[in-house]
Write a structure and sequence with these properties.
This protein has about 250 residues and is α+β, with helices and mostly antiparallel strands. It has ten helices and six strands; from the N terminus they run αββαββααβαβααααα.
């Protein structure tokens, strides 16, 4: 809102308060966007544990990329708000959801897929500060389920779209999120909706596995199936043990 009231720039960019950018960040981003005539430009980023010196970049490594390829192959930066410049008009009606953790995961993909192509700079112009005590690495709390809500929106968006490689990427991310959060929720003390949330995770996991014909063998993904089908997985391995025992007996 402040930008639309106070700035006449045609571009907007987001930089997290504990991150920093290369002195040539805006120069590279805007020149790259103008060169290819794109509405969004993204750049390579580096993780960092502290501020570092920068070297001048005499020539930017720029390319035009397919938006679906970008989303699939560089999914981390494809879903965050930072590390990009956007045409300001994209935010004329769009805002990130208020008071949500992972708020950028609700919006960034929608902005990206307004385009067939975006510009990408293969030089690290953005530096993401990895704070060991930051909110993303803190002890699990129910707010972290905001990311599941965002993934639900991505899932529905791509399921109805022609971008099936992006859909597969979101499905895998969705399954990973459910699996990784399952134990965290079980071990979270004082969370009064624990049992309901665990039941919802099982339900969503079963739905995702069955609806999308995920090719994951039980033997290699025992943990995944033990969450989704806790009773059936015990029966499955019990039957396998019985079959092996019968085979041993009959072979004698």
């Amino acid at each position: 809102d402040w930008v639309f009231t106070n700035s006449n720039s045609e571009w907007i960019s987001f930089i997290d308060s504990d991150d920093w950018v290369h002195p040539q960040y805006f120069e590279g981003m805007i020149k790259s966007a103008e060169r290819f005539g794109t509405d969004i430009t993204a750049c390579k980023y580096n993780n960092s544990e502290g501020y570092t010196d920068f070297e001048d970049i005499p020539e930017f490594d720029i390319c035009l990329v397919d938006v679906e390829d970008f989303f699939v192959n560089k999914n981390t930066i494809a879903t965050v708000a930072w590390g990009k410049i956007y045409k300001k008009e994209y935010f004329r009606q769009t805002r990130y959801p208020f008071a949500k953790l992972n708020e950028d995961e609700f919006v960034t993909f929608k902005l990206l897929f307004k385009n067939e192509k975006i510009t990408y700079i293969n030089n690290p112009l953005y530096f993401y500060f990895q704070n060991a005590s930051g909110i993303m690495k803190s002890e699990w709390n129910p707010k972290k389920l905001d990311a599941l809500e965002a993934l639900d929106e991505q899932y529905c968006f791509f399921k109805k779209s022609p971008y099936q490689n992006a859909f597969k990427c979101v499905v895998e991310k969705y399954i990973w999120f459910l699996r990784e959060n399952y134990d965290c929720i079980r071990n979270c003390s004082g969370y009064y909706e624990k049992e309901k949330t665990i039941a919802d995770i099982r339900k969503n996991l079963r739905k995702c596995l069955s609806q999308n014909c995920i090719e994951k063998t039980i033997e290699k993904n025992e943990r995944l199936y033990s969450i989704a089908y806790p009773h059936l997985i015990k029966l499955y391995f019990f039957k396998k043990r019985v079959k092996k025992k019968i085979k041993r007996i009959t072979s004698k």
